[in-house]
Amino acid sequence: MLVNHSSATEFYLLGFPGSRELHHLLFATFFFFYLVTLMGNTVIIVMVCVDKRLQSPMYFFLGHLSALEILVTTIIVPVMLWGLLLPGMQTISLAACVTQLFLYLAVGTTEFALLGAMAVDRYVAVCNPLRYNIIMNNRTCIWVVVVSWVFGFLFQIWPVYATFQLTFCKSHVVNNFFCDRGQLLKLSCNNTLFIEFILFLMAIFVLFGSLIPTIISYTYIISTILKIPSASGRRKAFSTCASHFTCVIIGYGSCLFLYVKPKQTQAADYNRVVSLMVSVVTPFLNPFIFTLRNDKVIEALRDGVKRCCQQFSI
What's the pTM value of the predicted model, to 2 decimals? Predict the structure, then answer.
């Protein structure tokens, strides 16, 4: 059905401009980023699962966030790396294009829902510590994660379906390294103003729907921290939120530039750079953000490395 409506059975990804030498350099760079992203986020997931010191709601959410980071970069980067090795344009089937776009948007939506939930978790931990274990119990945490995943995947069904109901008669060449929705809309002969407006409203709902509770939570958190009399107490309270706050700034900042704009068909170079931030740079940075600024994670990592070294030395 999608084939009949879109009048396309495959698309061609233009990828990155430049010489073969530049493509080889980009391949080496992005391949390194991808490997570090996989290893860093996998280490976080394993530590959260096996280390008893990390058996708390904050690290439970962090484990799922790391899984989402692995997914979002795996959805995009392998296809991009393959395209950098190929001469000319890269062919991608309609089914693969639909799947890639849907998974990319669904995982991204899930991630924002989870970031909002993590902000509320930090609010309860700092502002209502005596009731933290009661409010953020195991059942609540599991429900928060399940709802985030289900919401993310259900919410993106219509936008992706509506995108591929358009007629792509101008060209089948997507000016990006993945099936970018903005560039797909450029290829349509239909009037896309209405669908672009609806997509804009949906992006506003997702981003600001999770950003507003984050802002409110951190307003109360900062107010509570400033009331703590000792400098060491303020520093300890802020350290529990610093990693999440840094992640929020990077994640929301890049996606606000990419999706929250009335005109989805923005310049290809602009979309390409911001897409790299979302799918390559942010997943690469997150393991460092959550390990270098978190004493418990550093301690658990250090002990894990010691145990591994002892096992190999036997």
Answer: 0.86
